[in-house]
Amino acid sequence: MWINYLDQALLLAALAVSVNLLVGYAGQVSVAHAAFAGVGGYAVCFLAGLHGWPYLASLAVAVLVTAVLGVLIGLIALGLAEEFLILMTLAFSLGIIGVLATFDALGGVTGITGVDGLRLFGKELDTPADWLIPSAVVLALVFAVCRRIGESPYGQVLKGIREDAVATRALGKNTFGYKIGIFAITSGLTGLVGGLYSGWLGQATPSAYGFPLAMAVFAMVIVGGNANLAGSIAAGIVLTMIEPVLRQVLAVQSTQAALVQVVLYGVLLLLVMLVRPQGLFPERARKVAVPAPEARAQASPRPEPPARTPYDEADVVLRAEGLSKRFGGITAAKNIDLELRRGTITALVGPNGAGKTTAFNLLTGTVVPDTGSVTLNGAELVGMRPDLVVRAGLARTFQDVRLLNRLTCLENVMLAVPGRPGERLGPLFTPGRGVSRADREAAAEAMRWLEFVGMADEAATPADALSYGQAKLVSLARALATRADVLLLDEPASGVDAAWVETMLAMVAAVRDEGRTVCLVEHNLDVVRQLADHTCFMELGEITASGTLDELTGSARLAEAYFGAQ
Ligand SMILES: Nc1ncnc2c1ncn2[C@@H]1O[C@H](COP(=O)(O)OP(=O)(O)OP(=O)(O)O)[C@@H](O)[C@H]1O
Question: What Gene Ontology terms describe where this protein resides (cellular component) (predicted)?
């Protein structure tokens, strides 16, 4: 009796672990995963139960079918905002269960029942005790896979997506690809668990995989703690055991016990969300070790700054021609021509709403222009995904900083370091030390950029504990760590307290002295005067004047329209 419940607890815990990888790490809330488990369960009962397939082969099909289903549904649902994702996956979950219940071959509304005689490795799975080891092995396997992914550079990218998908994409990550990938992996894992669950139940029925199961799994994830896989196991086992304890220990009737269990799930969920929204166990923060000073020194020493070339003689690195963008009736960008020259700083100035941030969005591919072209070292960027634009060598910072709050400063910057093998699944599951070695090197490189901006002492500090000025410096380090040649800095000094402005100015000048090309949007003309080699004036989406700041401020029209008010 108790062993039977333990089997169930282990399998539900495995479901909770896989859903936690999706919800807790990647922040993608899916209600469809209980239904994916149902697809796995039906696949096994249909193939092994009704058609005599070997159990292992039918489990493999269950994993494959649910992973493919995950990709298909992910492609439709994951482009949506998070609140719509919940609704969309709820709709898919109802649809999947509804479709399964319509096929006569799958037993219609009663499902496939009376499945027995399943065998694994020659052993018949008959009694609850027979299911204990397969259930424990599946839980261990799901835990190992989810932990490997979650606590790796891949998992760091997932957490980045959870914190701020736009900022993570601006660090060169294909966020949509990662979302599809993790949706498919967790779907496949739930399909596997469903295959075991239905085998253990001896049936696959629409009611077993409906909304109550989805809620039970959510309760386990939330009570156990987001991104805490061990917490999900503990919560999975404890919550599943409520019903048997009510029945066996407190002698509550079985139908009442099931009802009380559902009510308790609800109460627990409410309590946890009100009192401890992060779950009973906090997020299991992966400790990225702060590199020792020797390790940092070895990480690609900075080359001597090249001698500076006068602005007019410097090569054009980035050229925008005829960029235009309308949003409904608003012309946010009109025929913008812009040249950024190697090793120089260009400033974009102009009144609020002039289109400066839009210009950055158009250059980086965040917004697709209606017309025009952008070339970086001769290569066309228009039409390229924003993460590929970063990889091509054009990175940006944001006016509102957009650090990944629950990640440390070091993790924020590490995430920008390109080419980490642990961000791909293949190397993660290949034996060898390549992933951890590359990770140590990335940490040393990230540390070098934190040192560069004077933030090395805050490496282990979560980003949300920084002052605004510190956060802007870390965001600069993060842009530098992308190794992009051209940096677009959106108001690097705005909102920064006086104590940090000088540091920020020195940093931006140092970035130029390294030979990188900078374009900055800035309202503070003192900052522009100190930094910019060239200034473009924007109004109503157009660049209407350019030259040195003194030339622009000398224009009577501009002085009256804008500079006079400064
Ligand atoms: N996604 C969008 N949808 C609709 N309108 C937009 C969008 N993005 C920008 N705009 C509009 O385009 C115009 C230019 O905005 P933008 O933010 O680029 O100006 P800005 O010069 O950066 O302003 P600020 O100095 O205040 O940051 C504004 O009228 C703005 O409302």
Answer: plasma membrane
Beta carbons of 558 and 545 less than 8 angstroms apart: yes
* pLDDT higher than threshold 90 for residue 387: yes
Q: What pLDDT digit, counting tens, does each position of 135-180 carry?
A: 999 999 999 999 999 999 999 999 999 999 999 999 999 999 999 9
- The residue nearest atom 4 of ligand 1, judged by CA position, is 327
Nearest ligand 1 atom, CA 359 = 18
List the structure tokens of 405.
Answer: 């709050």
In angstroms, the CA 538 to CA 554 distance is 16
What per-residue string of b and e applies to 261-287 under the rule 16 or more CB within 10 Å gives b?
A: beeebeebeeebeeeeebbbbebbebe
CA neighbor of 195 nearest in space, from 69, 57, 45: 45
From first CA to last CA, the distance across the chain in angstroms is 79
β pairing state of 394-396 and 123-124 = unpaired
- Helices 468-481 and 498-513 pack at an angle, to 10 degrees, of 10
Q: What tens digit of pLDDT does each residue of 70-84 get? A: 999 999 988 877 778
76, containing H or E segment: helix 55-77
Report pLDDT digits (tens) over 404-436: 999 999 999 999 999 999 999 999 998 877 788
Which amino acids bring their CB within 6 angstroms of ligand 1?
327, 330, 332, 350, 352-358
AA letter at 330: I
**356, 401, 521, 539: which to mutate for ligand 1, most atoms within 8 A of CB?**
356
How far, in Å, are 388, 487, 521 from residue 376 at the CA level?
A: 12, 12, 19
**Domain boundaries, given as residue ranges, for the chain:** 2-209, 313-565
CA-to-CA separations, 211 to 90, 148, 214, in angstroms, rounded: 9, 29, 5
Residue type, 245: V
Q: What is the DSSP letter of 247?
A: I
- Mapped onto helix, strand or coil, the DSSP state of residue 373 is strand
Q: What is the pLDDT of residue 297?
A: 57
Nearest CA to ligand 1 atom 16: 355
User: What is the total residue count of the chain?
Assistant: 566
Give the atom of ligand 1 at the shortest distance from the alpha carbon of 523: 25
The predicted-structure confidence for 193-252, as pLDDT tens digits, reads as follows 999 999 999 999 999 999 889 989 999 999 899 899 999 999 999 999 988 888 888 888
pLDDT at 311 over 90: no
Give dist(CA 375, CA 394) in Å, integer.
11
Q: For 313-565, give the CATH class.
A: alpha beta
Please determine, for the modelled complex, whether the ipTM score is greater than 0.85: yes
Q: Please say whether the beta carbons of 74 and 68 come within 8 A.
A: no
